[in-house]
């Protein structure tokens, strides 16, 4: 291209841009509407797919992530899908006897104290297998990771430092070969002895890299990200539950050998489990081994929701493009005469195409820039609005590939429909279009627009999702969170503390209660091991009803055992439905009974002692439907007198159980309270409460704003015993309720976002189509008004056109709802999949939105000047 041609091309480009800007000034609403529609489609698609790609599609940090599985034992009394740890002995058998894994790794959080001589400092720590580092391809920042022999019992005391701990405590200096004094709890018998806490100097053998993270695992019924440790110990030092297969503590990952399928691995482990059941029938009968790829666990966690969202994001972009297509088609029809005039006065096809391409590019570029901003803000909003707990959400960022794809689809749409007038004009002679005088813009010419808008309205059938999200937001957790606080404290383990026995712990509770209740505004106080809305479904324990035969293992119903102090129900506002709570004299007797801390669990002389319990309404409904549960008696686990009599001397009752309660424990129901949820999205398990003075969670109810007493509360609690008690966290219960069910809220939030976007884009499309329908029928309206039609009649014509489109869209939408419901029913919470109220409500909303979208076009139609319209005719 020579200089003259370049100058001519630039001149034409400047002219095209100038005419484009003039056109925008003449039709600002069209440009703004099309830009917003495209920008929403580009932004939503980029943001949502960025989340999907990061949370689900990006492989976990393993060398062979497609072959890594998690495995656990599913017992007959457990809920399906709820993960439970594996006992140490079972893990050892699975590790040594399997024929399907190249690596088997254990993950176990532990309690560890740094021994400073005059004080003990609790540090977060994990026991990890050497195989785990190999599976993850971990390269330490210094030294080495664990050796295979260090997975075996009897290993010498060695430790790995995490990068953060190394920098904070040692300034990043040379530490390999140095020792640190630690106290670690070790499984021994007899239990409840300070000798369980073993002191040793641990040799530092390595420092982990800065990017090392404990791999996330299925925990309970959700996918949970672990807190990061400070120290890592070899798995050979973990001995808890040795010799007792009923004590479950190990979370397990494994890597399949090449060519081995998940089904083959499951069958192999199930055969091993069958052999274990023959040797330990009391605890291992009926165990089913679960083997699930870690990637599949993510898909189960976010499952249908993200699959649906994946399609939904594309549909949002489709709706946006359909909107723009509708607008550009309408605009093109209205410009046919203009383009015909330009062609008649000498403008060539190249100049007309060039002008239309420039208009399309300006629209696409502006929409793309706005879309990038919306995607960036949308990702930031998702991170802010979604509580913690969603795997890798903090790593989500703009994905250039998805952004480019979304922009490309938008650009093709704009170019295709932007050039439609020129393509159509090429098939007709300019003189024909000039003779038509633009009268081609009749109702029949807008059929394609109606089809597009009808599709958009059908896509807005997301009312079920909106209702589900609303139900999840306001689900009843079973507690009164108003003016309540949860205080987490850190204490030395009871065996290392001066508050060693039950009586000392009860006295500590009294000191804490007196100190806290003396704070102005405090109305109730409790200490508990049970934490409402903890975010995890419990594994459940077995229970035997005294008034009926013990059912077969597969028919047993798990229950949750919750240990609380006096005042627990009052502090959390849990409603008493029947009976009463624990009597005060029972707690006072606990303080004075010299035998309460040392009862022999195998002493059958305690058979007839009744331990009072308060049960949940779910437990009452499950075991005693239609009758009062007060006075009913049941036994914890297998502690039925007949079972105990047969197994004494065979089954060893160890300190995994609360030894304050002898075998068999007769539990008598004295009260029934409302169900209290562990998670918002799952129905609570049947549960019962017993008195217990232990626990690192305090609950406080106030008559004033709880935020105003946080500082004084912290000071007063730590003042009870500064050497033994540290407040680690104080949270307002309202915040905990709001943040509970993070994953479900996250899924619902994204689905709701899609529903809002689809509905908003539908309104934009309706507005644009009705506006151009009015433009096309301007002469018709003028003629009608010249022959006596009033303005109300003209407005009615516009509204009728929109109402017909809405009615057709609603009908199509109802059909789609019945078809789509089978794919999205798992996303619904508290909503019947085919909910007539929701469907009718959404239909009414869409109809109302249609009328609103037609208001401005109707006003424009009523202002048509009949004289001017007839003059044009």
Shape: globular
Low-confidence stretches: 425-460, 594-608, 647-662
Q: Give the N-terminus to C-terminus distance in angstroms.
A: 47 Å
Return Rg in Å. Answer: 35 Å
* Topology, number of strands: 24
Biggest sheet character: 7 strands, mixed
Computed structural class: alpha+beta
Residues in β-strands, percent = 15-25%
Please tally the helical runs, counting DSSP H or I stretches of 4 or more residues.
28
Descriptive overview:
The chain has 873 residues and is α+β, with helices and mostly antiparallel strands. It is built from 28 helices and 24 strands. The strands form 4 sheets. Strands 16, 17, 18, 19, 20, 21 and 22 form a 7-stranded mixed sheet that branches. It has a 6-stranded mixed β-barrel with strand order 3-4-11-6-8-7. The protein has a 4-stranded antiparallel sheet with strand order 15-23-14-24. The longest helix has 41 residues, at 294-334. The two termini are 47 Å apart. The model is unreliable at 425-460, 594-608 and 647-662 (pLDDT under 50).
């Amino acid at each position: 291209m020579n200089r003259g041609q370049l100058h001519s091309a630039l001149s034409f480009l400047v002219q095209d841009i100038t005419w484009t800007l003039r056109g925008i000034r003449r039709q600002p609403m069209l440009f703004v509407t099309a830009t917003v529609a495209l920008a929403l489609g580009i932004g939503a698609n980029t943001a949502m797919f960025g989340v999907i790609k990061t949370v689900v599609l990006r492989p976990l940090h393993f060398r062979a992530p497609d072959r890594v599985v998690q495995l656990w034992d599913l017992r007959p009394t457990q809920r399906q899908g709820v993960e439970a740890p594996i006992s140490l002995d079972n893990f050892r058998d699975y590790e040594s006897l399997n024929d399907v894994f190249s690596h088997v790794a254990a993950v176990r959080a532990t309690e560890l104290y740094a021994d400073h001589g005059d004080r003990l400092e609790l540090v977060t720590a994990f026991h990890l297998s050497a195989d785990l580092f190999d599976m993850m391809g971990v390269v330490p920042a210094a030294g080495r990771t664990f050796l295979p022999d260090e997975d075996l019992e009897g290993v010498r005391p060695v430790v790995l430092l995490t990068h953060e701990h190394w920098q904070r405590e040692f300034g990043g200096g040379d530490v390999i070969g140095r020792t640190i004094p630690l106290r670690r709890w070790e499984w021994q018998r007899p239990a409840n002895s300070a000798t369980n806490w073993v002191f040793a100097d641990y040799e530092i053998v390595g420092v982990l890299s800065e990017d090392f993270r404990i791999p996330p695992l299925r925990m309970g019924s959700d996918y949970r990200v672990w807190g990061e440790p400070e120290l890592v110990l070899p798995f050979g030092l973990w001995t808890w539950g040795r010799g007792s297969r009923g004590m479950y503590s190990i979370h397990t990952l494994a890597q399949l050998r090449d060519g081995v399928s998940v089904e083959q691995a499951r069958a192999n482990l199930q055969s091993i489990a069958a052999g274990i059941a023959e040797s330990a029938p009391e605890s291992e009968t009926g165990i089913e081994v679960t083997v699930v790829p870690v990637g599949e666990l993510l898909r189960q966690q976010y499952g249908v929701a993200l699959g649906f969202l994946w399609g939904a994001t594309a549909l949002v972009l489709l709706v946006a493009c359909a909107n723009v297509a509708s607008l550009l088609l309408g605009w093109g029809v209205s410009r046919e005469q203009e383009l015909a005039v330009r062609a008649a006065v000498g403008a060539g096809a190249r100049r007309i195409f060039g002008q239309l391409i420039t208009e399309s590019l300006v629209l696409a570029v502006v929409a793309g820039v706005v879309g990038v901003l919306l995607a960036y803000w949308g990702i930031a909003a998702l991170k802010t609005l979604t509580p913690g707990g969603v795997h890798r959400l903090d790593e989500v960022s703009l994905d250039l590939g998805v952004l480019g794809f979304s922009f490309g689809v938008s650009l093709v749409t704009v170019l295709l429909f932007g050039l439609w007038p020129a393509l159509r004009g090429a098939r007709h002679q300019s003189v024909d279009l000039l003779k038509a005088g633009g009268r081609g813009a009749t109702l029949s010419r807008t059929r394609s627009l109606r089809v597009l808008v009808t599709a958009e309205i059908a896509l807005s059938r997301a009312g079920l999702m909106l209702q589900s999200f609303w139900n999840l937001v306001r689900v009843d957790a079973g507690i009164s969170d108003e003016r309540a606080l949860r205080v987490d404290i850190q204490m030395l383990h009871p065996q290392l503390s001066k508050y060693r026995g039950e009586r000392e712990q009860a006295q500590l509770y009294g000191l804490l209660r007196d100190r806290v209740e003396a704070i102005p505004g405090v109305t109730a106080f409790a200490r508990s091991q049970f934490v409402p809305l903890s975010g995890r479904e419990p594994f459940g324990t077995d229970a035997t009803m005294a008034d009926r035969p013990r059912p077969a293992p597969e028919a047993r119903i798990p229950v949750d055992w919750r240990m609380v102090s006096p005042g627990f129900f009052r502090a959390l506002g849990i409603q008493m439905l029947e009976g009463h709570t624990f009597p005060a004299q029972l707690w006072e007797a606990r303080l004075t009974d010299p035998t309460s801390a040392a009862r022999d669990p195998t002493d059958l002389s305690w058979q007839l002692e009744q331990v009072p319990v308060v049960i949940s309404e779910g437990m009452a409904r499950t075991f005693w439907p239609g009758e009062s549960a007060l006075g009913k008696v049941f036994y914890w686990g297998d502690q039925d007198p007949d079972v105990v009599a047969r197994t004494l001397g065979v089954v060893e009752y160890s300190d995994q159980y609360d030894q304050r309660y002898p075998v068999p424990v007769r539990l008598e129901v004295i009260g029934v309270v409302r169900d209290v949820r562990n998670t918002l999205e799952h129905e609570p398990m049947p549960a019962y409460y017993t008195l217990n003075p232990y626990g690192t969670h305090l609950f406080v109810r106030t008559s004033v704003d709880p935020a105003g007493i946080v500082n004084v509360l912290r000071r007063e609690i730590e003042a009870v015993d500064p050497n033994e008690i540290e407040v680690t966290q104080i949270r307002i219960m309202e915040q905990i309720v709001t943040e509970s069910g993070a994953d479900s809220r996250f899924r619902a939030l994204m689905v709701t976002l899609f529903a809002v976007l689809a509905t908003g884009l539908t309104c934009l499309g309706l507005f644009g189509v009705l506006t151009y329908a009015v433009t096309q029928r301007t002469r018709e309206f003028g003629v009608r008004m010249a022959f006596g039609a009033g303005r109300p009649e003209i407005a009615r014509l516009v509204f009728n056109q929109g109402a017909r489109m809405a009615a057709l869209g609603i009908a199509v939408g109802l059909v789609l709802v019945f078809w789509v419901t089978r794919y999205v029913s798992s996303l619904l919470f508290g909503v019947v999949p085919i909910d007539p109220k929701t469907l009718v409500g959404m239909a009414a909303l869409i109809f109302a939105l249609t009328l609103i979208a037609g208001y401005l076009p109707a006003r424009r139609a009523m202002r048509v000047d009949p004289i001017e319209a007839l003059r044009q005719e």
